[in-house]
Design goal:
This protein has 330 residues and is α/β, with parallel strands linked by helices. The chain is 47% helix and 14% strand. The protein folds into 2 domains: 205 residues, Spore Coat Polysaccharide Biosynthesis Protein SpsA, Chain A; 110 residues, no CATH class.
């Protein structure tokens, strides 16, 4: 391993991005402000055309900790899984034996890296997960409504055991044993990586190392994102128990509506169950966002089983590749 000063974390932070000019300044600033700082912050650009790469070049010239790599194969033009490919390129170039993954759409508290990687540096774990929470300064009502269905917390203090590459750390040796991030999928690549990592080691869950995320969702965009994840799960053949749970909710809702001719009781039971699905995970945090957020949460929760069940089944029978806004410009 390379030599490090006592004031520097022996960790390489990796980020992959494409056409993120609106967000790149925020994430880079927060990653370079980590205390103690990372050995390096490696950002792989997949061939941006919106000025992101020029911004990165200029920033890297000012701060030697920032390593900018331009690799146009890390885009959908050349790879089915450009996000995974970008991470793999960055990790391959990393100098450190400890890797932390961050996301271009997030920001990070100054102690994020220290907290996330503490069990790795101490030798107590090979794999650590920090989770994500909403950036309350710029979230929409539909960000709040959809948050728990994307494993996003409403408060940075809420515990989480979810997997997301927005805040994930591991040893380079574990990454090598797994074979890297899977480059055959566009979305859900962190889930597949997590499945393999947990087969080999037990993750450490870090309560105070969340990525601060600002999706900017509408009802339509949140449903679209949920559909993409479900479609990817179907294509990858994973999380079948999730499909069965959501399909069962759909069937029960249809039966309850069909029973209205004779009795309202089944529908009332369904409404109570849907209230539990919508609010059980974070009610005490949700209420501070107001009545609109509560109503939006209920509406989105009712839509979720239909979006998941339909699209995961679609994914099982179609191999049509997914696209993203960075590559399509939409």
């Amino acid at each position: 391993m390379a030599r490090y000063t006592a004031s520097m974390q022996p960790v390489s932070v990796v980020v992959t991005e494409l056409n993120e000019i609106e967000d790149i300044g925020r994430v880079v600033s927060s990653l370079l402000a980590q205390a103690p700082p990372a050995t390096e912050v490696i950002i792989v650009d997949g061939g941006s055309t919106d000025g992101t790469w020029e911004w990165l070049e200029a920033a890297a010239a000012k701060d030697g900790r920032l390593v900018a790599i331009r690799d146009e194969t890390c885009s959908l033009k050349f790879s089915a899984g450009p996000v995974s490919r970008g991470r793999n390129v960055a990790i391959q170039a990393a100098k450190s034996d400890f890797i932390a993954c961050a996301d271009a759409g997030c920001t990070y508290a100054p102690d994020w890296l220290l907290n996330l990687t503490a069990p790795l540096v101490a030798g107590d774990a090979e794999y650590a997960l920090g989770g994500s929470c909403l950036d309350a300064s710029g979230c929409t009502v539909w960000d709040v409504a959809s948050a728990p269905f994307f494993s996003i917390r409403l408060s940075p203090t809420e515990p989480t055991k979810s997997c997301t590459a927005r805040s994930m750390a591991f040893t380079k040796a574990l990454w090598e044993r797994i074979g890297g991030f899977p480059e055959q999928v566009l979305v859900g690549e962190d889930t597949l990586f997590d499945f393999e990592a947990r087969r080999q080691t037990k993750p450490a869950f870090i309560a105070n190392a969340k990525a601060h995320y600002r999706p900017g969702n509408t009802f339509r965009s949140a449903c679209h994102q949920m559909a993409r994840y479900a479609l990817s799960d179907g294509q990858a053949g994973v999380r079948w128990s999730r499909l069965f749970r959501n399909a069962a909710r759909c069937v029960l809702e249809v039966l309850a509506l069909a029973s209205l001719r004779w009795t309202v009781v089944p529908l009332l039971v369904i409404l109570v169950l849907e209230s539990w699905f919508a609010f059980h995970s974070d009610w005490r945090h949700l209420v501070r966002f107001g009545v609109k957020a509560v109503l939006a949460r209920y509406a989105f929760s009712v839509a979720v089983p239909w979006v998941v069940a339909v699209n995961q089944m679609r994914g099982r029978f179609t191999k049509q590749p997914l696209t993203n806004r960075q590559n399509t410009g939409t």
